Amino acid sequence: MESLVDAIWEEDTPPLNGRAAVHTLVSRLRAAIDAAGGDGGAVEWVDGLGYRLDRERVHLDADEAGALFRDADALRRSG
To answer: What are phi and psi of 23, to 5 degrees?
Structure first.
């Protein structure tokens, strides 16, 4: 969790209780995902490691872009 706190605040001094601040930020992230029609529960706590995004439960623009690039490449190769 400390590496996550360090990554979020980088050069800035993190709040006194960085862990609590991260939990608050994750809670807001989950709420924003839910409000957008997604599954905020896909942001999961992994004991001892921190948070992870369950890629099976969310749709990412990067995944869609990758699929479009693969489709375009297949079309290009087929002439």
So the answer is: -60, -40
